[in-house]
Write a structure and sequence with these properties.
The chain is an alpha/beta fold. Helices cover about 40% and strands about 15% of the residues. The chain folds into 2 domains: about 240 residues, nicotinate phosphoribosyltransferase (Alpha-Beta Barrel); about 90 residues, TIM Barrel, CATH 3.20.20.70.
């Protein structure tokens, strides 16, 4: 199968059927759509903005190729006039967003798009697909970082992520969430993320003796010798690794560390560290892998585990305990008229918006207020920034290390009670501005009274 280079048809069909009807009825007025998350999954009380770079690249390059249009014609769903419109289609709208690496909370607009109705509608599927995954993974990764701090974590998830593209995005998003590297070599090439890896058990078993395997690896990688010690017996393997470590020391080299991948990690790590220390290799690190996520990391460390860094794989790479977020992309304004929906449990906030962040005198995050786009709340930092104008990227996008640094700085300002893994913990306070609250109440009242023809901005 050839690689898919153009993503215009990576779209739910109803986006195109709606667009075709909009076109036929000449509905080309500006529309604003807002992207947000409706509620928190269990034990989560914050999210991390991630995925924006991919969204902006998609919007800037969006077009329908002749092959795309031929396929749509073959479906016999669309009239030739609409397909002719798509032939010249490109995104010419504006984008406001909370920058990657910044924290945001339930119901806050992570991203708002304004463009012609068709432009703003047709991009929904890709935006949710892209940002839901990366926000989800960055948030999960940050929880692992919080549990392990100040120990370093490496993304080991590639082999069980949900496809090749997801594997790449997981590496990127987990780096935003604080990971130091990835085992994914292609992600290293594409994103400049440090790559990390040691050996599998098959490497050990391919040699007749464990010590021969260790010596071979040390010979090939004398500056990066981390030996997997649990293939047969962890403590016996550690003693053999220590023997190789002493041989390396006599040659002016040093054993960088050992890796544990199974067993009682808390007990074994202490015993392994004791073996290394007695062998004069106390500076060799212990790297642990094997089913880790924030819960297992915390449990092992609470039990006294003596571990220097972790490889975190499957449970982070698929966000196993919260494998999706209830992320929505809803119209909030059309043709100068604020709009909302009142579906039970899915009420939306009308009009284009801004989020204002308030901090304490010591710089700690205090509360957020969702306001109207033109609100000016004294003392509050506006979070949504304009990053695209008329379909062209206008903001200078930061590097991945800069995004990670931004996240770590802001995360350090978030109170510990909002980072807790306790399902009954407190939620970070988010309110509405006076003007947005008034507008919302007015529109809800009029919609419920059936006077939709009276709705207009006031």
């Amino acid at each position: 199968m050839s690689r898919i280079e153009n993503l215009a048809l990576l779209i739910d069909l109803y986006e195109l059927t709606m667009a075709a009807s909009y076109f036929e009825h000449q509905m080309f007025e500006p529309a604003t759509f807002s992207l947000f998350i409706r509620n928190y999954p269990p034990s989560r009380r914050y999210f991390i903005s991630a995925g924006l770079a991919d969204v902006l690249s998609y919007l800037e390059d969006l077009k329908f190729t002749p092959e795309d249009l031929k396929y749509l014609e073959e479906t016999r769903l669309f009239k030739s006039e609409f397909l002719s419109y798509l032939e010249k289609f490109s995104f010419k709208g504006d984008v406001y967003t909370i920058p990657e690496g910044r924290l945001f909370f339930v119901n806050e607009p992570l991203l708002e798009i304004t463009g012609s109705l068709i432009e703003a509608q047709i991009v929904e599927t890709f935006i949710i697909n892209t940002m839901n995954l990366q926000v989800m993974i960055a948030t999960k990764a940050s929880r692992c970082i919080h549990a392990a701090w100040p120990r370093k974590l490496v993304d080991f998830s590639l082999r069980r992520t949900h496809g090749a593209d997801a594997g790449l995005k997981v590496a990127r998003a987990s780096f935003i969430g604080g990971f130091m590297g990835t085992s994914n070599v292609l992600a290293g090439k594409i994103y400049g993320i440090p790559i990390s890896g040691t050996m599998a058990h098959s490497f050990i078993t391919s040699f007749e003796n464990e010590i021969d395997a260790f010596r071979a690896f040390a010979h090939t990688f004398p500056e990066n010798t981390v030996l997997l010690v649990d293939t047969y017996d962890t403590l016996s393997g550690t003693r053999i690794a220590a023997e190789v470590g002493k041989e390396m020391a006599r040659e002016g080299k040093k054993l960088k560390g050992v890796r544990l991948d199974s067993g009682d990690m808390a007990r074994l790590s202490r015993e392994v560290k004791d073996v290394l220390r007695k062998a004069g290799l106390g500076k060799a690190t212990i790297f642990a892998s094997g089913g880790f996520d924030e819960y297992k990391i915390k449990r092992v460390l609470d039990q006294g585990g003596d571990i220097d860094s972790f490889g975190v794989g499957t449970k982070m790479g698929v966000s196993a305990d919260a494998p999706y977020f209830d992320m929505a992309y809803k119209m909030v304004q059309y043709a100068g008229r604020p709009v909302l929906k009142l579906s039970p449990g899915k009420t939306t906030l009308a009009s284009g918006k801004q989020v204002f962040r308030f901090t304490t005198s010591r710089g700690k995050l205090k509360r957020d207020v969702i306001g109207l786009r033109d609100d000016n709340l004294k003392g509050g930092e506006p979070l949504l920034e304009k990053v695209m104008s008329q379909g062209k990227i206008t903001a200078r996008l930061p590097s991945l290390p800069q995004i990670q640094k931004r996240f770590l700085a802001e995360f350090s300002k978030l109170d510990e009670k909002y980072k807790s893994f306790d399902e009954q913990g407190r939620e970070y306070p988010v309110g509405l501005s006076v003007r947005l609250k008034s507008l919302q109440a007015q529109f809800v009242r009029k919609l419920k009274s059936g006077k939709s023809e009276e709705l207009g901005e006031s």
